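Record minuted for completeness.

…
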Amino acid sequence: MTVRSRATRPTGDTRPHRPIRTATRMSVKELLRRWPSMLFMIFMPGAYFLVSYVTSDAVTTLPAEVRTADGRAVLQVLDRDFKALYLAVLGISVTGSFAAMTVVRPGMAALRRLRLVGYRAAHLLTARLHVLLVITVTSTAVFMALFAPLVTLRSVPLAAASLLLVGLTGVALGTFVGLIVPREFEASMILVAAAGVQMALGRSGADAERYLPYWPGIEALKSAAFAPAPDVAAMLAQGAAYVVALSALSYLIWNHRTRLWRR
């Protein structure tokens, strides 16, 4: 009687074994070859945030409209705390979006080989998103380590969730832009513009800020940072919907592009 191991594959079965794990491992190896760029991408925005905060005026206040459990309220907050909030958003959004744009663009030869031996588009994109999730969580932890001791937060867990949402939005946006814009320079300029315009409009109090992708995460972060009774559920849900929508569009583009590789 012959006993066949559970790991034994039937003869003629060409399906990849543990495809997502294999593709993820290859993506990690690819990023490790460029580890200086990855570290720079995570810690450079953090250093800029820290220097900007320390050199800002420590006594000036300004009115800030935030969401509370009782509705919207206008509170007086320190100008440098309000600025720090947008600097944190700028740093995490740029880190997430640039990492995503970088991860979905290079290494196409390796991805093409995996696709040709039977890996599905979903396997390859999911593997890349796993790597991006690790980068986003790491950058969020770095900014929370800087942000929490400097700014008096009403709710640290909700602030962390809001910053993570900003990072995930950046990943979704960077993935989408990286797939539809053929040249890396133009894609980079679009991502920088999206984050920079969001910060400029938010700092000036312009109502147009609500039409930009990072607005739900920023509103949730304002509430978590400054409101006595934070109300972030609606904003977190709206931001998550943005992430899902951008990710779905990215998958459709990715699936079409990788399907052409098999022809």
In short: The two ends are 44 Å apart (CA to CA).
